[in-house]
């Protein structure tokens, strides 16, 4: 396969930034809902939820899988840029460790407003996935797939209860690897909550790294390949979901109405991400990635998508500033309205009896947040492009 032209290189990177920007925007919606529109039921609990709350949560399911996957693609493209496995290894290792430290030392207290429990979320798992990928890059692509794809396929067969019983005093290790939950160490002096265990997320990044090779192909072939692969993932998801054969602990259960049946069909397991969940999100994501490249190459709709590219160019910068802003403003709002600052994300038990979750308020705050952060993100992206500072490359 021949290398892409400079114009095609620009369009492919632009498409990645736009999709990453869309992910950031949807992620912000989910986090805004957590601080401003918390419900006393899970938005995906079919017994209590309304379809509007369900889809507000469900649409954000695409964020983590696609972001981890795109990180793998970006790692491959960086390797093509430097043409040196040692430099790529150092890049992945250093940034992976940096992300882990950020999650533990900076991001965790920004969620809570204090430092009570270490919360290991998506930034943590991206960091560890990059650390593992720094070793995997020395293998041929076929061996990377041989090691990681089976994990994607079979991890739903793991018995978490049996594994924790087998590990006895080291059950915390399985929590870090596959079974989300709390870890209390040293007589509860160190409290950790693992939201994103390592399995199978690192396999998603490895898959993205291997599929990054498609960006060395001619554009028409790449777009066709990504589209077909995405459709294939989606079809396999539909077949698995309808048949209830394998791939998700939550079975599809047809309901009395069409809308609730659709909700049941889409209600897949995220923590940890099931095979069906990953197929459901990565499939359409691949199709969208291919179509975005086609649109940007032909300048169709690009002006309307340019603002997404701004957010996608500085995702970590956006992540680091948006959580404390949402949290701080939400606590100020509850103080003014209820006379007490309340972190609704972590302490909904303090909500007064007259509290009622408002989706309209949630969406309004989300849109205001995006408008407020657009200029800072744009300025920071310009600063990164114009500066040769190594420190800026870490944000």
| Total count of strands | 3
Q: Characterize the largest beta sheet: strand count, sense, and whether it forms a barrel.
A: 3 strands, mixed
What is the overall pLDDT average? Answer: 92
Helical residue percent band: 55-70%
The CA-CA distance between the termini, in Å, is 34 Å
Class from secondary-structure proportions: mainly alpha
| Oligomeric category | single chain
The low-confidence parts are: none
State the order of secondary-structure elements, H for helix, E for strand.
HHHHEHHHHEEHHHHHHHH
| Structural domain tally | 1
Across the major sheet, the strand order is: 1-3-2
Helical stretch count?
A: 16
Global Rg: 21 Å
Shape descriptor: globular
**Percentage of residues in DSSP E strands:** under 5%
Task: Describe what this molecule looks like in 3D.
With 395 residues, the chain is mainly alpha-helical. The protein has one domain (6-393). It contains 16 helices and three strands. A three-stranded mixed beta sheet has the order 1-3-2. α3 runs antiparallel to α4 (85-112), α6 runs antiparallel to α9 and α13 (302-313) crosses α15. The longest helix has 31 residues, at 6-36. The radius of gyration is 21 Å and the shape is globular.
Short structural summary:
Helix content is 68%, strand content 3%. It has 16 helices and 3 strands.
Notable traits:
68% helix; globular; 3 strands; 3% strand; 16 helices; mainly alpha; single chain; 395 residues
Blueprint of the fold:
Elements: H1 6-36, H2 51-58, H3 63-82, H4 85-112, E1 118-120, H5 122-136, H6 141-154, H7 160-167, H8 171-177, E2 181-185, E3 190-194, H9 198-211, H10 219-243, H11 258-266, H12 275-297, H13 302-313, H14 315-338, H15 359-386, H16 390-393
Parallel strand pairs: 1-3
Antiparallel strand pairs: 2-3
Helix pairs in contact: 1-3, 1-12, 1-13, 1-14, 1-15, 2-11, 3-4, 3-5, 3-9, 3-12, 4-5, 4-14, 5-9, 6-9, 7-8, 10-12, 13-15, 14-15
């Amino acid at each position: 396969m021949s290398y892409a032209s400079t114009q095609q290189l620009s369009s492919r990177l632009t498409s990645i930034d736009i999709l990453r920007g869309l992910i950031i925007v949807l992620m912000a919606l989910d986090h805004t809902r957590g601080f401003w529109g918390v419900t006393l039921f899970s938005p995906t609990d079919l017994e209590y939820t309304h379809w509007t709350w369900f889809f507000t949560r469900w649409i954000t399911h695409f964020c983590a899988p696609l972001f981890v996957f795109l990180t793998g693609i970006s790692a491959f493209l960086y390797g093509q840029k430097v043409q040196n496995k040692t430099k790529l290894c150092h890049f992945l290792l250093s940034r992976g460790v940096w992300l882990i430290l950020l999650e533990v030392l900076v991001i965790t207290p920004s969620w809570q407003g204090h430092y009570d429990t270490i919360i290991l979320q998506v930034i943590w798992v991206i960091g560890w996935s990059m650390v593992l990928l720094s070793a995997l890059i020395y293998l041929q692509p076929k061996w990377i797939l041989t090691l990681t794809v089976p994990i994607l396929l079979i991890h739903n067969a793991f018995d978490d209860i049996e594994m924790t019983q087998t590990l006895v005093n080291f059950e915390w290790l399985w929590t870090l690897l596959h079974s989300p939950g709390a870890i209390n160490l040293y007589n509860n002096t160190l409290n950790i909550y693992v939201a994103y265990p390592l399995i199978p997320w690192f396999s998603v990044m490895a898959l993205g790294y291997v599929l990054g090779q498609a960006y060395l192909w001619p554009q028409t072939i790449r777009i066709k390949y990504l589209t077909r692969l995405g459709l294939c993932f989606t079809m396999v998801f539909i077949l698995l979901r309808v048949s209830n054969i394998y791939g998700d602990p939550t079975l599809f259960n047809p309901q009395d109405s069409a809308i609730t049946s659709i909700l049941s069909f889409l209600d897949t397991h995220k923590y940890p991400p099931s095979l069906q969940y990953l197929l459901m999100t990565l499939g359409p994501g691949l199709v969208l990635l291919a179509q975005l490249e086609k649109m940007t190459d032909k300048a169709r709709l690009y002006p309307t998508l340019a603002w997404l590219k701004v957010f996608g160019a500085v995702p970590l910068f956006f992540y680091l500033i948006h959580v404390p802003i949402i949290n701080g403003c939400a606590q100020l709002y509850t103080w003014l309205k209820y006379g007490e600052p309340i972190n609704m994300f972590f302490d909904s038990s303090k909500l007064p009896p007259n509290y009622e979750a408002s989706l309209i308020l949630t969406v309004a705050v989300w849109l205001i947040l995006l408008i407020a952060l657009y200029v800072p993100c744009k300025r920071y992206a310009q600063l990164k492009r114009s500066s040769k500072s190594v420190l800026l490359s870490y944000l």
